[in-house]
Amino acid sequence: MSELHKLLLNRVRQQEKALGIEPLAEESESDTDLELGSERQSSLNGFPPSSLPTKISPLIPPAVFPKSGSSSSSPTSSYFSTNDKIKSNYESTVNEIFPKQEKYASFQTYYHPPSNTSAPIFICHHGAGSSAMTFAMLTKYLQENYDENNKDATPGVFTFDARGHGKSEGATDFSLSALTEDFTYIVNEFVKRHNASSSSIYFLGHSLGGSVLTNYLSNPSEDAIKVSGLIMLDIVEETAVKSLVAMPNFIRKRPKIFDSYQRAIDWHLKETHLLHNEESAKVSVPDLLLAHESHLSWITNLSLTQPYWETWFKGLSSNFVTCGQGAAKLLILAGHENLDTDLIIGQMQGKYQLIVFNNNPNAGHFIHEDIPSHIAVSLLDFVRRNDSPEDYMKKELGFLPKWGGKINKS
User: For this protein, what is the EC number (predicted)?
Assistant: First the structure.
C-alpha cells in the first residue's frame, strides 16, 4: 500500500471516530493490498459473492438462476392473492411517503415537501436499472431523524424515474449527456412548480445517478440552480469502469420473468444479495417490474444501455472533486474502494467529506436501502455542518472555536 493511501486511511479513521461511526478494522498491509487490488466482479446493482476474499462490494453480483421448482418460469396458484397483498402494501407505502406525485412531461416524479422553507430539500437521482423508490425508506428515515426537538419539522425529498425506468416513458438514448439534459429539465421544472429557488438544495445520487449529478454541476447551464451540496452514494470511477466488463453476463443470466413479487424480492435478498433490507425491498423491487397476466417482467431493458456504459463514469473522480463552485461534497461508500489519485488527494485537501461503512455486514452497493437510518443520520449531519456551521459546532463542541472550522467548499 502506498504512503498516500496509508495517509488517507488514517484520515478516514479519524473522521469516522469524530462522527461516532465504528472505526475501520485494523488490517495488515498485505491484507489491505489484497483487498484494494481485487477487481470488483460485478455491476451497477451488486454485491460480492461469498467466495471472494474481499470486503469490496462489486457493482454486479454473480448471476444466479432460481432453483428448479421455484423458478420465475413456474407460475403458482397463489400468484394473484400474493401479488395483490404485496402490491397493495407497496402502493400504500409509496403514497404515504410521497404525497405529491406528478408527471413532468414523460417523467414520473415523487415529492415529500419540507415542513417549512428553512428545511433543506434533497433532490435524488437513482442508478441504472433502479427507480425512484430506491430512496423510499431513506426518505422515511430522513423525516424521523431531522429535528429531535421538533418532530413536526421535516426535510423535503424529491426523486423521479429516469428515462426507461420505473413509470417514466422508455427511450433508446441512455448517454450521460441525454440523462443530464433530462435532469436539467426536471430540476428546473421542480423549482418552478414548487417555488424552491430559495431553499437549501442538496443533490443525492446513487451509482450512475451520482455521475449524472456531477456532470450537471461540471457543465452548468445559464439557468442552473444554486446547490448547497452534492452527495454520491457508493460510486468510484475506477471500480465502476472495471465492473462493466461483467455486465453482459449478468444481464444474460438473470431471470427474465418472475411468477410473483415475492419471488422477485427473494431473488434480490436471498439469491443474489443485491439487497439486505426486506423493508426497503418490498417497496423498491415491485417498482422495477411490469405485471402481466401470469408473470412479472423487468421494466428496464439494461441491454439498451450497453452502447453508453464506457462514457457513464469517464472523468467522474476529477469532476466530483472540482465541480460545483461553492457546493460542499460528501462521498459515502459501503466498503473501501481502490480510490484513484484524484479522490485521494481531493479528500486529503478537504475538498469533500468521506464516510465508509466498512464494518457493517448489512451494507452493500444499495447502501441507502440496506441501512437507511445510518445514511439518513449521515446526510442530516452533513447538512447541519454546511447550512449552520456555527450552530453545529456550538452544539457538538459546546463552544464556538475562534480558529474557524468551516468546510472547504471550493
Answer: 3.1.1.-
